[in-house]
């Protein structure tokens, strides 16, 4: 008699534990939204390995109360709740320190592998829209930003304040260019200890009120 493994068991053999695959398969539905995908990701058995430290529930509670997606009836000592909160902190680009920062790094390292498994489970069922949402969640993990954030934040040197200023002057390309050039000028002055920076470029010298700086246009 010829035995052949089921598709879910094949996925589990490459990525995650069989209990995680079973959980993904039972929780995913065609109508699952981004909030649901995040909860399913945080429900993985691998997240249960996060340590539960004394007194950490208070910190997790603060994180949960300041995130975009709420968690229904959260148990702040639950490692899955902690994983959910730390992922949302990562998307919002907030900072955690100490043991929570170490836990966040561990979650982020395993998230891509878990999301690959989620995409494979969804693809085996044939839900295209949900598969695209799962891929979007994977991009959010990689770039540390929400799906509704400006694409400018994909640049590692862009800040939310700089993006806001660009969006406020969206109808004026020249004004946006000046904002970006002033930002480049400021970064160059800071990195060079407020000394004049001359970069190798064919562009002319731009004269700013505070200092001369050559920038790449």
Short recap of the structure:
This protein has 217 residues and is mainly alpha-helical. It has nine helices and two strands.
Helices and strands, with pairings:
Elements: H1 7-14, H2 18-27, H3 34-42, H4 56-64, H5 79-92, H6 98-125, H7 128-143, H8 160-168, H9 173-191, E1 206-207, E2 212-213
Antiparallel strand pairs: 1-2
Keywords: Membrane, Transmembrane, Transmembrane helix
InterPro entries: Sec63-dom
Protein name: SEC63 domain-containing protein
Please give a structural write-up:
With 217 residues, the chain is an all-alpha fold. Helices cover 56% and strands 2% of the residues. The chain has 9 helices and 2 strands. The chain has helices at 7-14, 18-27, 34-42, 56-64, 79-92, 98-125, 128-143, 160-168, 173-191; strands spanning 206-207, 212-213. It has a two-stranded antiparallel sheet. Strand 1 (206-207) and strand 2 (212-213) form a beta hairpin. The termini are far apart. Residues 192-217 have low confidence and may be disordered.
User: Span from first to last CA?
Assistant: 69 Å
Helix content: 55-70%
Mean pLDDT: 78
Strand line-up in the sheet with most strands: 1-2
The biggest sheet amounts to:
2 strands, antiparallel
Beta-strand percentage range: under 5%
Order of helices and strands: HHHHHHHHHEE
Low-pLDDT ranges: 192-217
| Number of discrete helical segments | 9
